[in-house]
Amino acid sequence: MTPAPARAARLVVLAGAVGATCDIVYAILYYGWKGVSAERILQTVASGLLGKSAYDGGWPAAALGLALHYGIVIVAAALFFGVARRWAWLRDEPVTAGLAYGVAIYGVMNFIVLPLSAYPYPMRFPLLTTATGLLAHMLVGLSISLVTRRAHSR
Fold this sequence. Notes:
- With 154 residues, the protein is mainly α.
- The protein has one domain.
- Helix content is 81%, strand content 0%.
- It is globular.
- Keywords: Membrane, Transmembrane, Transmembrane helix.
- It comes from Scleromatobacter humisilvae.
């Protein structure tokens, strides 16, 4: 059954917002534990668009980073929702599909998006950061899968 467009759109945005919140809370806690401020973390997100100048932009650049972060994850939720309309497996196995989607998001962001962006630093993958980042992204994918599944269920 095709979901009502307005309901589906609300659930896609909700899925993206839940996933983005999980990810940014992870980043702020993990890097905060290492002494990095929330402002700096959000500026790092903005640096994908602004390059090194994001770090001179104060809280406005951080706010841009937060908006970009939420926008990216909402787009990821919309993509998952669209593909799940055609592939029943994504709806029928939401936990497995969501965890796998989280790994895919991690890979796309770290091996395609960031290298092609204005992000000003070389990519590094220390074991603890990579492992916790993968787990956080798996939670993002899981939340996207579980919430968007509701859009298909009526």
